[in-house]
Amino acid sequence: MELFLSLCLGIGLSASCGFRIFLPMLVANVAAMNGWISPGEQFGWLSTWTAFFALGTATLLEIAAYYIPFIDNLLDTVATPAAVVAGTLLTTSFIEIDNPMLHWGLGLILGGGTAGLMQAGTGILRLLSSKTTAGIGNPVVSTAENVASFGLSGLAVFLPVIALVLVVLLALWLLKRLLNLKKS
């Protein structure tokens, strides 16, 4: 059961990385510092004050940058591989499996894949917003992404199974929308 819950936590936080890269890491940091969750031994740095200040600064800069026209679209280009890395790192930090290949493989496939899928969806949404509103609607999209990232991160920490169900439903919906766009 512990492995299942840690996978739920990791996948929920990873999906949140698809909306914002650093915010879920900051939430994980605060939760770890308060003893609400426990990262693996190799990831003890996640519960330090140094990580708090670094992740807090990165989170504030990332959120602010997404409200600047043109920069938001540019960030989406860089954010996709960064979200995969962050998702992999977060999932790997909470699952404890003795086999390093399986440990990192699960982190990459489940965490990185989930983060990458969510980031692809938000990138397409921002491009559509830019195209249809000439960028005027992008701050609304950014605000929705901030709320989604924070909300899903909180769910992952406090109600990980519900977060997993929500992520699966969101991923299915997103895949359906992407397939419909491809057919059009």
Automatic annotation (TrEMBL):
The chain crosses the membrane at residues 42-67, 74-95, 101-128, 149-175. InterPro entries: DUF4126. Residues 7-175 form the DUF4126 domain. The keyword Plastid does not apply. The keyword Transcription regulation does not apply. Keywords: Membrane, Transmembrane, Transmembrane helix. Pfam families: DUF4126. It comes from the Bacteria. This is DUF4126 domain-containing protein. It comes from Dyadobacter soli.
